Each structure stands twice: as structure tokens, then as C-alpha cells.
Amino acid sequence: MPIIGFNFDKIQVERSKKVEEKVEIKNNLGIKDVEIEKLSINNLNEVLKFIFEFSLVYEPNVGNITINGHILYTDDIKIIKDIQKEWKKNKKIETKLLELLLNNVLYRCHVKSLTLAQEVNLPMHLNLPTIHATPQEKTYIG
Fold first, then answer.
1. Measured distance CA(112)–CA(56) in Å, rounded
2. Which of 13, 36, 90, 114 has the greatest count of CB atoms below 10 A from its CB?
3. pLDDT at residue 6 above 90?
4. Would the pTM count as exceeding 0.85?
5. Among candidates 104, 8, 22, 21, which has minimal Cα distance to 65?
């Protein structure tokens, strides 16, 4: 079933010092909690709220970006209850669902992080495509 909502709850970005040497960027993403949330839209009564935290740490002590948020997910009420029960018992989420959730978070958080890093002059954490001018080979023979 689908993801019906995605929200950023807290965004923190900080540059501690000027970038003067090679920077190592470590990222982390995790589901912090799973809750049942009551909604009253289109016959949806209860949905799952997956609370996540995404972070980028620029080392050595250059800066960091932390994004907290949540995803709203709907499915059959029995499946929702089973997912939450498994989370409370073992802190685990079924692999296929976890893949869907984490890919969604990664996509949105990486895009948001690019603009945040630019705002405080931190290096980009993703390699974007670039164009390099190269001399053209002469293919005309005449």
C-alpha cells in the first residue's frame, strides 16, 4: 500500500569551521519509532507513522546536517497492527516495506541536504554530473 504523507519535522545545519583540508562525509539513516496515528480523511482511520532521522557529518569537525521527519503509510488495519507489533517487539520492519520507506527518505533528504549544504558553504555530499570540454577528433578526411 502507499505512502500518503512525508514531512520534515526538524532540520538542523551547521558549519563549525572553514573547509581547509579534505573532508570525509559520513551519512546515517534510521527509523527511530513506529506509531499508529489517527486520521479522518477518506475513510482512513489509522495509519502508520514512521519517524526517521537522516544525518550527514563532515569530518574532521567541519559541520553537520540533521533532518528529522516522518512518513505516513496506509495499509489494511490488520497489517498496520502487525507491523507495529513487530516493531515494538523486535524493532524490525519487513524488508520490502523498509526498502520503500528508506528509499523515499533518502531521495528527499539528499535533495534537501544539497540546498542546505550550499546555504552554509559545506561541500556537496553527492557527485553531480559535470561537463568537461575535450577537443573534438577530426573525422573529415579530404
1. 12
2. 13
3. yes
4. no
5. 8
